[in-house]
Amino acid sequence: MIIKNSGNMSKKDKTLKDILDFILYENPSTQDEIAEQLGITRRYVTQLLQPLVKNGTVKRAYMIDLKDYEKIAGSLSEYSSSRNSKGNVIVNDMLINMAAHVHSQLEASFTAVLEYDEDKANKALEMDYATNNMVEKIRTSVETIVSMNKHSEFSKSMLYTEVAYDLERIGDYCGHIAKFVINDVYEIDENVLKKLKKMYKTAQKMIRLAMTAFIEGKTELKDDLMELEDSIHILQSKAINLIATQMAENSFDEKERSNYFIYLFRVIKAFERMGDISVEIMDVSIEFHDNIPRTTTPRTFRY
Fold it and tell me: CA spacing 20 to 30 A to 162: which of 32, 80, 213, 277?
């Protein structure tokens, strides 16, 4: 898992980081704008920014020197990046937030299925707008960093964007799960649901392991991840066999019942694809941290 630092960030440090993030991402024109957005006084904004304005980290037009931002943000971050000296603090932070959002999106989608709640399913689908917005912010941030730092390794910098797109794909599959509730009129059979609950927990674990490997450089977690991938494929086979038995017992004269099985297969496939994408993120992590290029052989032919 992503490990928090032992000491909690003080309220003052958190406010300073919020101010710096707002300047970096929103380009405010005045201190009044910063204060209003963050719900603090202009005087407090001035107090926190004054030392950084004096040493040149923050320019008068409220722009930030990216190298200085990385030093400051790294010292204020809630998370440890033990091996990730190669990582860019700004983008790491954004990826951490995006991963947390995708975990929440998956939880919201599956909760809607468990409770067969259409309102919750619609709210889960709405979360995908934020997921798409996050991937765009990461993409533009990476492009900005590469353009400002001519010495950066372009290929490695682009791996940040690749991981963000992988998280976006997981978000898309969350939508497949939420849409089951909206599209169908039948609740899921209890025996199948038991298998789906296990697939859900396994997918959450796989996403967490893969992102920990990328953010913290813990590529040794690959063995654990591959064990979980085996588990999710076994669960997939068992769930499909259960559904096949149910299909044999039902008449396909009922269109609604036929659609039920189609949508249910999509839910099972969504969890399986989340596992596959997690393995892809792990492969990116190994290339990023251990300098081991990914194989060009399709994954289906490797094992």
Answer: 80
